[in-house]
């Protein structure tokens, strides 16, 4: 089973790239984030095209904000929108935002997640992010072994996972509470499939649109696939599809893939194709072009 996760940063803008990408890469399960459309618009824009390719789909939309989806051609059973205890924002007791959807695909509960950004350290949205992650952890405790958490986590797991740790000092995505929240998920037995396959390589999944960050390979790894132990043991390949970040009107995120049981393209990676001229920068010499990305 080939599983992919991709923050498309507006699915309507990405349709001309998404459909050919499905045809080329042939993922069995796709987790999309930041679709930025309602359920009705998602179905109208993509329903027929997905059906013609053999995909069932489920979508949790929020109009022009957020939005997550699951596409599957290996079953889409017991669909769940959000998760128990998911807080809302700004009212924690309000309706959860369109940030989480899950279903059972070929025996594995796959979650498509768009973790809150956090915006500024110490802000209300930052505390919301931490509460959201804790509620997620609590919700998957009893089924972690047969679970995959896929999506835009808006957390840089370690200093290794960004172009320069000095550039992120004082920003979200790298703070100890955020990283501790990610570690708490991993403590359930969920493994970072990319680092399990490629422990030491330079791997990014997001590059800012501005300042030539993509061409210089000045990015960060915030799109993750965490898998419970029995699922992680089946991983044959894990890689970032950098090709999907190139060309005309790309998302600022690249898809991340995991192949279970078989690897149709071999153990390619970790980044396909690799950047040709990654910039080597002195610590602190490059500033973030804006606040840390979604």
From TrEMBL:
GO terms for biological process: DNA repair. InterPro entries: AP_endonuc_1 (IPR004808), AP_endonuclease_F1_BS (IPR020847), Endo/exonu/phosph_ase_sf (IPR036691), Endo/exonuclease/phosphatase (IPR005135), ExoIII-like (IPR037493). The keyword Metal-binding applies. Pfam families: Exo_endo_phos. Its cofactor is Mg(2+); Mn(2+). Gene3D superfamilies: Endonuclease/exonuclease/phosphatase. This is Exodeoxyribonuclease-3. It comes from Gordonia humi. The lineage of its organism: Bacteria, Bacillati, Actinomycetota, Actinomycetes, Mycobacteriales.
């Amino acid at each position: 089973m080939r599983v992919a996760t991709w923050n498309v940063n507006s699915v309507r803008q990405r349709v001309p790239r998404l459909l050919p990408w499905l045809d080329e890469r042939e993922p069995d399960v796709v987790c999309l984030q930041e679709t930025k459309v309602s359920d009705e618009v998602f179905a109208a824009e993509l329903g027929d095209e997905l059906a013609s390719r053999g995909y069932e789909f489920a979508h949790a939309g929020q109009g022009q904000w957020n939005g997550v989806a699951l596409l599957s051609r290996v079953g889409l059973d017991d669909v769940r929108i959000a998760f128990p205890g998911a807080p809302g924002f700004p009212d924690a007791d309000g309706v959860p935002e369109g940030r989480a959807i899950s279903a059972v695909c070929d025996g594995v509960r796959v979650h498509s997640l768009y973790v809150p950004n956090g915006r500024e350290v110490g802000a209300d949205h930052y505390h919301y992010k931490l509460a959201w992650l804790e509620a997620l952890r609590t919700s998957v405790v009893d089924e972690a072994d047969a679970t995959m958490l896929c999506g835009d986590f808006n957390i840089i797991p370690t200093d290794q996972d960004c172009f320069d740790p000095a550039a992120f000092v004082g920003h979200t995505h790298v703070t100890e509470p955020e990283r501790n929240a990610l570690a708490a998920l991993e403590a359930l037995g969920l493994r970072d499939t990319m680092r399990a396959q490629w422990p030491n390589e330079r791997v990014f999944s997001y590059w800012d649109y501005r300042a030539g960050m993509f061409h210089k390979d000045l990015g960060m790894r915030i799109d993750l696939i965490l898998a419970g132990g029995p699922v992680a043991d089946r991983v044959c390949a894990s890689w970032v599809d950098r090709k999907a970040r190139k060309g005309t009107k790309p998302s600022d995120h690249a898809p991340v893939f995991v192949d279970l049981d078989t690897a149709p393209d071999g153990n390619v990676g970790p980044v396909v194709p690799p950047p040709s001229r990654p910039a080597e920068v002195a610590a602190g010499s490059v500033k973030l072009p804006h606040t840390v990305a979604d």
